Amino acid sequence: MNKDTWQLQEAKNRFSEVVNKALEEGPQTVTRHGEEIVVILSKSDYSHLIKSQTSLVDFFRQSPLVGIELDLERDQSLPRDINL
Q1: Pairing of the two strands 5-7 and 28-32
Q2: pLDDT per position in the chain (84 positions), as tens?
Q3: Whole-angstrom distance, CA of residue 34 vs CA of residue 13
Q4: What DSSP string runs through 51-69?
Q5: Phi and psi at residue 36, to the nearest 5°
Q6: How far apart are CA 13 and CA 28, in angstroms?
Q7: I want to staple 41 with a disulfide (CB 3.0 to 4.6 A). Which of 6, 27, 68, 82 is the partner?
């Protein structure tokens, strides 16, 4: 197992060490039955992760397509009858 990967029972028994490694070395992964289930990371790493996320509104505001006009009207000439 990697030095940054912990089995759940070991992480529980050595929680202080896991936290210290997350602070000093970066995110620590915890596994259960061989499956990665959680990541323990410092508040600083978490804040950076959350801060780097852009809201959908900001994403569209920063889009290179800002200012381009789109015709979003539905074409009324096509039939809308659907037989179920």
Answers
A1: parallel
A2: 567 999 999 999 999 999 999 999 999 999 999 999 999 999 999 998 888 778 888 888 888 888 888 888 877 777 777 777
A3: 17
A4: HTPPPHHHHHHT-TTTT--
A5: -65, 125
A6: 15
A7: 27
Residue 79 token pair: 């039939």
Alpha helices per DSSP H over the chain: 8-13, 15-24, 43-51, 56-61
CA separation for the pair 66, 6 (Å, rounded):
46
Q: Where are the domains of the chain?
A: 5-61
pTM for the model stands at 0.61
Nearest residue to 24 (alpha-carbon basis) of 44, 48, 1? 44
- Residues 6+ positions from 33 with CB-CB distance below 8 Å: none
* 5-61 classified as CATH 3.40.1620.10: yes
- What letter represents residue 10's amino acid? E
